[in-house]
Design brief:
Strand order of the largest sheet: 4-1-5-8-6-7
Protein name: Cell wall hydrolase
Structural class: alpha/beta
CATH superfamily of the largest domain: Zn-dependent exopeptidases
Low-confidence stretches: 33-57
Number of helices: 7
Order of helices and strands: HEEEHEHEEHEHEHH
GO molecular function: N-acetylmuramoyl-L-alanine amidase activity
CATH class of the largest domain: Alpha Beta
Organism: Ruminiclostridium papyrosolvens C7
Shape: elongated
Bound molecules: zinc ion
Oligomer: single chain
CATH architecture of the largest domain: 3-Layer(aba) Sandwich
Number of domains: 2
Keywords: Hydrolase, Membrane, Transmembrane, Transmembrane helix
Pfam families: Amidase_3
């Protein structure tokens, strides 16, 4: 009888212990579970709070380049027979886009097909996206068919305009066209209305026989795109270094 009571008591105590153990495990689990939820509740708003601070620091943002193929749709630009400036500028721009994508440089084209886009919409897009660099691609034309060559135009009121144009032209002059160097153009709409460094490239003369032959060659268009991207990369690098140096001086 005594033995029976002892066993009963022991088994009660054991089950009591088991119950306590279960309660402890359950409590720990609930606390751990709540902890996960609680921690997530804190990190979400915290991360939301910190990201705009990072966004406001333009130097730490990956660069975004807007490529602007001149003309389009009902605005063919300069022409020679069946050949229109709008088609050449688009072909070169699409090659530039391809290389930028391969190099993982963020980019937007103001048009990707044969559509008319107003100058206002082109600059508005670049300003709204707060892009790092705006590159407009055109071809030249003149009444004298002897005029030929490649040049980079810039806004003389932009602090980096001239130096950026020098960088770009140093790449373009290797393409085998006559080097017309850099030209300040204070009245060009897209250069004046863009709120970031911008350049307008005049890739050869459609009105010149030799330039036109190059411009319509897909091989030249590709080589041209390679040099434009080299210019873009060097300009982005130079401007990023300049802005990080100026911010460290503050
Ligand atoms: Zn044009």
């Amino acid at each position: 009888m005594k033995m029976d009571k002892l066993i009963e008591k022991l088994s009660r105590r054991l089950s009591h212990k088991n119950l306590i153990t279960m309660i402890v495990i359950l409590s720990v689990s609930i606390i751990a579970f709540l902890g996960v939820i609680f921690r997530n509740d804190i990190t979400l708003p915290l991360s939301n709070l910190t990201s705009p601070v990072e966004d406001s620091n333009a130097a730490s943002m990956p660069p975004l380049v807007v490529i602007d193929p001149g003309h389009g749709g009902s605005e063919p630009g300069a022409g020679s027979g069946q050949i229109n400036e709008k088609d050449i500028t688009l072909a070169i721009s699409l090659e530039v886009e391809k290389i930028l994508n391969e190099k993982h440089i963020d980019n937007i084209l103001t048009r990707r097909d044969d559509t008319a886009v107003s100058l206002e919409d082109r600059t508005k897009l670049a300003n709204e996206k707060k892009c790092s660099l705006f590159i407009s691609i055109h071809n030249n034309s003149f009444t004298d068919p002897a005029s030929h060559g490649i040049l980079t135009t810039y806004n003389p009121y932009s602090p980096t305009g001239e130096s950026n144009a020098e960088i770009m032209q140093s790449k373009l002059k290797t393409l085998g066209m006559f080097n017309r160097k850099i030209v300040p153009r204070p009245n060009l709409y897209v250069l004046r209305r863009t709120e970031m460094p911008s350049l307008l490239l005049e890739i050869g003369f459609i009105s010149n026989k030799n330039d036109l032959k190059l411009l319509t060659s897909s091989d030249f268009q590709k080589k041209c795109a390679v040099q434009i991207v080299k210019g873009i990369e060097e300009i982005l690098e130079t401007n990023a270094t300049a802005s990080s140096e100026s911010s460290s001086e503050d």
